[in-house]
Design a protein that fits this description.
By secondary structure, the chain is mostly helical. The protein folds into four domains: 73 residues; 127 residues, no CATH class; 125 residues, Alpha Horseshoe (Serine Threonine Protein Phosphatase 5, Tetratricopeptide repeat); 69 residues, no CATH class. It contains 22 helices and four strands. The protein has a two-stranded antiparallel ribbon. Strands 3-4 form a two-stranded parallel ribbon.
């Protein structure tokens, strides 16, 4: 650690403004660090913060993690400079900025993601809660009218190119559902930043083709982000989600924008940011994002809205949102004109999200029934990753109710499904199995020891990322 010349008055003032003790700031920093797999900061405590206040410059990613912790507490962006720290060049990676030109943002993000040295910087960026504040109505209107770029390419872009992009989006999405986000994401980003970026700069046959191409590109950016999210690369995922929203806004495609905002809400729930999650989920259902969406997509938006309501403790509103989502899915009919991106959202998916909502509302019996329904009705060969996660959640509910044998049975099936899956969510499921089984393993309970050994073996082969 390098010593600065004097006490860090800026940091001391921010801690006072946050109404935190130094120990509380340290604990908040550790929570943010764990989100990003930065386990080297797990031991940060009050003494570290005390050193920083006295003038020591934190090392590595600590300044960024500390500033994100303060930003979340204060509800505004706190930069390293605001906190009295010097910033090493490139330490923040690609900054989340709603106002950067969409195609510039695509080039910058894709370039950083694919370049080995720049990706190391990107991978150390933090998930920013303050960046979840959505721009106002004027921003959306200006994006929808944006078609004044000078076209440098001479190649024409027609419906055939749009169809080819959509075919590739479908391929990558199905790969993700079956094998997890750790498979093929680089290939998706390469296609996005080469072929698709070129199409976006081309000459469009009609304005409708232009909008359809931007929408298709938004879907691919969303899939790239969802794969990163699934693989627990949350800062990278957030940046692709923002890019996807911007592309959808330029396409003037409300349902597509809602689809991505719903994913951002899902991520915020998983990362313990319930208020931000509810804001995003509510935005996903605002106006034409919900009203012009197909019934299946409306159901998807609605059930994540229900989860977000449950996360902030609004159980009655969450129950009403679940009923609405069920009604929307029931209204979907074979042959409906609906986007390919919602192919996965069927009875099993609704049951899974309903179970998560009921669990978070404290209704373990209801959650047990819905997780069981989800596992029973899902086509496991197509949706392998989610099936494994569902079974993992089912086991967690069962063990909370004192049913060790049933939980181990569910977890055994989950581990069977995890074979060949590369996913941060399945890794977390295996870690949670081991934590829940630890007391039984220490007592020598055979079934607990067997499942724990299998979970440990999966984690060893699946890797950290």
């Amino acid at each position: 650690m390098a010593r600065t010349r004097s006490r860090n008055r800026k940091l001391a003032a921010l801690i006072k403004e946050a109404h935190w003790s130094q120990a509380q700031l340290a604990a908040a920093l550790v929570r943010v660090a764990m989100e990003h797999g930065a386990r080297e900061f797990a031991g940060v405590g009050r003494s570290h913060v005390s050193h920083w206040v006295r003038g020591t410059q934190p090392s590595g990613r600590a300044p960024e993690l500390l500033c994100e912790s303060l930003s979340r507490r204060l509800g505004r962006t706190v930069t390293t400079e605001d906190a009295g720290f010097s910033r090493s060049p490139g330490s923040r990676g690609i900054v989340v900025d709603w106002h950067t030109d969409t195609l510039t943002a695509l080039a910058d993000l894709g370039g950083a993601d694919l370049d080995m040295e720049r990706r190391q910087v990107l991978s150390t960026a933090t998930y920013s809660v303050t960046a979840l504040a959505l721009p106002g109505a004027a921003w959306w209107q200006s994006k929808a009218r944006q078609d004044g770029r000078e076209k440098s390419a001479t190649r024409g872009v027609g419906r055939g190119e749009v169809d080819s992009v959509r075919d590739m989006v479908s391929l990558f999405s199905r790969m993700d559902q079956r094998h997890g986000g750790g498979h093929a994401r680089t290939a998706a980003v390469q296609y996005l930043t080469s072929d698709v970026a070129g199409y976006l700069k081309g000459r469009f046959a009609t304005d409708r083709v232009r909008r359809e191409m931007f929408s298709a590109a938004g879907e691919l950016a969303y899939v790239s982000g969802w794969m990163a999210f699934d693989n627990s690369e949350h800062a990278i995922a957030q940046r692709y989600f923002v890019l996807a929203v911007k592309l959808a806004a330029e396409a003037d495609d409300g349902p597509m924008a809602g689809h991505v905002l719903r994913a951002m809400a899902h991520q915020a729930v998983d990362l313990g940011q319930p208020r931000s999650a509810l804001d995003l989920a509510s935005a996903s259902m605002a106006g034409e994002r919900y009203s012009t969406a197909a019934p299946r997509e409306r159901a998807l938006l609605g059930v994540v809205h229900a989860r977000s309501l449950a996360a902030v403790g609004e159980s009655s509103a969450a129950a009403a949102a679940l009923v609405r989502a069920e009604d929307d899915l029931a209204a979907a009919r074979p042959g409906d004109e609906e986007p390919e991106r919602v192919f996965f959202f069927q009875e099993a998916s609704l049951a899974h999200e309903t179970a998560c909502t009921l669990r978070d509302c404290g209704d373990l019996d209801g959650a047990l029934r819905q997780f069981s329904r989800s596992a029973r009705t899902r086509k496991t060969s197509t949706f392998t990753r989610t099936h494994a996660v569902t079974l993992g959640y089912l086991g967690q509910v069962q063990i909370r109710q004192g049913n060790l044998e049933e939980a181990c049975g569910s977890w055994a099936q989950a581990l069977d499904s995890m074979d060949g899956v590369r996913s941060g969510r399945t890794r977390r499921t295996a870690q949670e199995m081991r934590a829940a089984l630890s007391p039984f393993r220490k007592r020598g309970v055979r079934v607990a020891t067997e499942i724990d050994a299998r979970a440990r073996a999966y984690l060893e082969t699946a890797g950290s990322r």
